[in-house]
Every structure is written in structure tokens, then in C-alpha cells.
Amino acid sequence: MINFLLDLKTRIHFGKDSVKNLKQELYPYKKILLVLGSGSVKKFGIYDAVKKELSDAGLEIFELDGVKPNPSVDLVYEGIGICRNNSIEFILALGGGSVIDTAKAIAVGVPYLGDVWELFIDESRITNALSTGAILTLAATGSESNRNSVITNEKTTEKLGIHHDCLRPQFAIMDPSYTFSLPPVQTAAGVADIMAHVFEQYFSPTKDAYMANRMAESVLKTCIKYGALLLKDPENYEARAEIMWASTIALNGLLGAGKIGDWASHMLEHELSAYYDLNHGVGLAILFPNWMKHVIDDSKLWKYREYAVNVWDLPEGMNDMQLAEAAIAKTREFFIKLNLPARLSEVGIDDKYFETMAENLIKRGKLGSFKVLNKEDIISIYKMSN
Amino acid sequence: MINFLLDLKTRIHFGKDSVKNLKQELYPYKKILLVLGSGSVKKFGIYDAVKKELSDAGLEIFELDGVKPNPSVDLVYEGIGICRNNSIEFILALGGGSVIDTAKAIAVGVPYLGDVWELFIDESRITNALSTGAILTLAATGSESNRNSVITNEKTTEKLGIHHDCLRPQFAIMDPSYTFSLPPVQTAAGVADIMAHVFEQYFSPTKDAYMANRMAESVLKTCIKYGALLLKDPENYEARAEIMWASTIALNGLLGAGKIGDWASHMLEHELSAYYDLNHGVGLAILFPNWMKHVIDDSKLWKYREYAVNVWDLPEGMNDMQLAEAAIAKTREFFIKLNLPARLSEVGIDDKYFETMAENLIKRGKLGSFKVLNKEDIISIYKMSN
Questions:
Q1: Would you identify the CATH topology of the domain B183-384?
Q2: Which of A6, A17, A211 shows the shortest C-beta gap to B222?
Q3: Where are the domains of chain B?
Q4: Which tens digits make up the pLDDT trace of B333-355?
């Protein structure tokens, strides 16, 4: 186990009607910015429930709506402006990862004297941020309690992430029933995203970290059991609850504590999303089984064996390579069962930018740790996914 | 899954030389109280390393030493006095659960106007506490990051616990090498204590909570694998690290999130410790397999099946009752393998107070949830353990 610092400071209010805790959480504030998406929360009564709590609390509310998937830095600039002009003290995100990431980027941009995009180019400049809170409506990114924010800059065709403990929300309101009305593809992409977060930490060069590995398998088994169930029964509270809680645990730092993460597949997907505005979870579902295939070699079979036996219950008697191949096949089958595409061509992406994207990725530094990828590796994984 | 609030605010600095983070954590303070045990930390250089960091930080340090297992409220009174007379701002615990629990009890007692023991009689009176931090030297209670403190009042023969989020330490320094020199019985009792914490949350009337159950099994498997290893190889860093991290995860709230806990066995053990000054982990190792046997009935076999198959790898083909009995036998065998006693008579306890202790326990309200125990149940479990 390697040394680690873990600061899980986000207070989690989990369960039906947990929105009732909002008033008490916002007690110290007078002026807040409410950040939200493009309308779906307004359709299903969630927005009204939140507004009622906020207005009962006597807060002055400013709103920034219209956050889209692969959220844009332009809206972040707009949010920073609103906060500065109105002496906003707190930023409340109502939505999924894109909305929460936008709120965090605004929060870190407000006290920063330069252009907030500079922080995405060089996150070592981050020192502090306004406080944020999240009301989650989509289980996927784990942004509701983690230290990350990923923002897209369309002008420079960059999708970049920042990481700092000051970005962890002060609280997260997690009511599984808020995810009942999600379109099936968003539910499925969310499950793929959660599993991808676990994979990035599970397929690690750190050989020990026994308990972290077993907990990672617990999260994966949860996704497999309840992800499939949700496609048939989208208003199953228990299934929604398990997936929502899995999304938090998958990326709050717990599963990576004491281990080196890989994160190459995420970088490959971010590059795709920057060029094509692809859904992040869909992109990961397409790429990950191909990454698994590409990076395999004899020195890594121990990890694939663990994955095959402990997650997919494949028989221990099979030889290592058979187990690895069977487990990768199971992974792909599962994503197909979730009605997720298996090829980039299915989502209208061709090989036009594979080389450019690979060059962009290599430029940013070392990519991967379970296996370090070079330019040819990246192009090869993109081609396998085509 | 039932609704929950989870506030894991303790910053964890984990790994070799993590004591180096002490200075930065204590930066805001000038005067601290250092609470410690009866000398073992001074033997192995840990105390010196801590003192060096504290003196480099230029802090004014007051010391309270002599905390013993089943820590006494008398020392808590003494600590409260030191804090009040010297305007202490922060309490730093250096030790295991007893030392940390003492520090927490002092922290909650300083701002309370009445007798601190009143808070143990009625914890609903707790509103705030001084800030605390913990440098852990024994993996067992999880007190380094949880909201609990358990203190013994010899005058009233009571061992009682308090629970409040204000008791969570601000930080925990967890260097596995600090536990290398523990006597084997303390290592073993710590492992039993960790497993007992998991059992209390695992054997729950909440039937779903799938992911929490799988994570609980991960912690149990970690204890079984590395607990046994430590008895042979006490300076195995990886084994010490896994057990130390397991101790935190077992009782920081994560495994119980969304579930009802039982905690009856803990109450039975606290009562024993109040009368006999028994090591808490030893008491739990004696009692728990008997509790498992006593509370079994047809409606609960599903849980024993999960435990048998997922934790002890027993064959799924066995019938439910066989599985349950085999899993309980495995539990006892494991504790015996750790050289822990299996009977109260081995630690000099007879049946003299069984009836009195059962009456004390029943008086304090409902006991247990997986099965609610009445007076006869309690006496029966004590007798089975005799």
C-alpha cells in the first residue's frame, strides 16, 4: 500500500426527501448561485421542491441555467461574473456531473485573479474556492463528493480536469428517486462511467492494496446487479439507491487510497468528447474493453484473474489467458446488455482525428500506469474501437 | 437502503512517516493537550518522533498520560481541568482507542457546564466539542475517525458510549509501522474488535444494502487474511497497513450507511468490561460466535448463508443450517488461531454477575435489532460463553 491523504469532507444526506436538509446546510449563507442544466429538472418537480426549500430558508437566489453535457468554460465565465457582481457566498449545483463540475469551476474561478482556464492548464495554481453543495440528479461522475471538475473549452478543443480538495462540495443531497425519470441511455452511460472509475483504480500497478481491491469488486458487482435491473425497472428505488451510492464510492478517493491509478482510458475518452461532444459514459463503454485487450501481457494476468473470478464469477480452473479473455468479453456483453454502443462508428465517429488526438494526449505527459501508453498504443485502442 | 447522513470529515494521513503532516495540521493552534497511555509509546521512539514535530511547530504542549484500557472518567476530569486552566485549543491523542476516546471525552467536556458524565448518561445534551486529532498506535476501535467515545466510570460500574459528529477527529495520522511492536494479544484483540464492528453492521435486519454488505465482506476477508499473517510476521508492513486501514473503514460509518446496526454484542461486552476490566476485543471474540449461535432462526438463515459463502468460501451446495453452523465454527476457529480465549472462564470470569449485568442492559432500553434480546437471551449468551 502506498501512502495517501484522504479528505472525505462532503457531508452526505442520502435517501428519499433528503432535500429537506438543504435549509440547515445553507443556514450560514444569504446569497447563493443555483447552477442547473437545460430543463429536465424543471419537468419532474425536482426544481420546484428545491426552490421551495430555498425560499423557505429566506435566501437570495441567483440562477445560472443551461449547463450541457461536456460543460463549457463559457458558462463558467458567466457564473464567475454573476458571483463577483453580486457578492455570492455559496454555489449550489442541481444536476449531474456536468452541472456540479460547472459549479466547482465557478467556485475556484471567483477568487482567482487571472482567467480560470489557466487553472485547468496548470492546476498547481489552485489555492482556494468558494463553498459548493450538490443536489444530485444523475448517478455517474461522483462529482457530488470528489475533488475533480472537468470542463471543455470549445475554442481550443480541450477537455481538461482539475483536482483539489478545496473542490469537494460541503454537502451532497442524494435522493435516489430524483433519478427515476432519467432516459435509459443516461442511466446506462452513468453505470458505465461508474464502472470505468473503478476500473481505473482496480487495474493498478500496485499489487497489494487487498482491501481496496475487494471493495472495488463490491462496487463493480453492485453496478452489474443493479445496472441491468434498472433498464427493466427504472423506478426501482433500491436499484437507484445502490447505483447512486456506488457512483459516490467509485470516485470519492476510497477505492484509490493506497494505490496508483491508471486513468489512461479517461484521458482517451476526454479527447474524444472534446472533438465530438460524445457522452462520457458511452465513450468509456466503447473504449474500456479495448483498453483491457490492448494492455494485456503475461505480467498483468494476475489482475485479470482477480477480475474474472471475483467480479464475473468465472471458474478458477480456467487458465489465466482464458480467464482474461472471458472477463473482457463479459464486460463488453454487459455494456451491450445496457444498450450501449460497442463501436465509435455507431456514434458517428471515424478515424479522422485519431492521430491528432493521440498527439494531443502524448503532449500532456505520461499516460497510464498499469501500462504507460505511447502514441501507437493510443491509435491502436482508438482503431480497435472503430 | 434506509436514509442516512454520513459525515466522514476526518482527514486521513496514511503511511510510513505520516507524522510529518502533524505540523501542518496543527498550524492554527498555539496550545495543545497531548493525551497518551502508560508508557509503551515512549519505549519505541514514537513519542520522541511526535514530540520533535510538535516542538518544531513551536507549540506549547501540556501532557496527560496514564490512559489505561477501559479508560476512566477520572482521567477525563483531570484533562478537562488542564484544558480549562490553560485555555487549551486542541487535543491530540497519541495511542489506541482508549487514548483517543479519552481525548474526545475531554474535548466534549471542556465546553459543557455540568459534569461530563451527564453527557454519557444522556448524549442528546452534546452540542459541541474542542477539536481533536489522533496519532494511531493500535488498529482496533476506529476511534481515529469515528463519532464515538466509550468511557468507564468505576464508581458506578458503568461503561458507556457517546456518539456525535462533533467527536470526529479533525485528522488522523496512521503509520502502520507504529503498530509493529504491539504485543501479539493486542494485535489479535484488535483484529477481533474490527471484525466485531463489521459483524454488528453486517448482521442487520436491513435485507438489501447490497454494496454495503459486499464491502463489509471485503473488510472481514482482509482481517482473516492479514490478521493471521501478523501473528507470524508482526513487522509485515503490508499486513499492518491492511489491518490499520480495515480498523478505520470498519467503524467510520461507511459499512453501516443505509442499514440498521445491531450492537447488542458490544453492549454485552461493555457490561463485562465494566465489571471485570476485560480487554474489549478479547471479550468480543469470546461472545460473538455465541451470539451468532443464539440468535439464529429460520428467518435469518439468508444472512448466515451470505456470510458462509462470501466470507468463508464455504460451498453454496450445503443447506442453510449447515452453512450457518460451519460459518460460526470457522469464526471461532479463527479467533482460536489468533490465540484468543474462547471462554470467559479462561479470563477468570464466572457467572456471579450474569443476572445483574443482564438487568443493567435491559434497563437501558431496546437491545439489538437483528434480534432484540431480552434478559433471558443475555443470560443465555453469557452462559454459553462461560
A1: Dehydroquinate synthase-like, alpha domain (1.20.1090)
A2: A211
A3: 11-178, 183-384
A4: 999 999 999 999 999 999 999 99
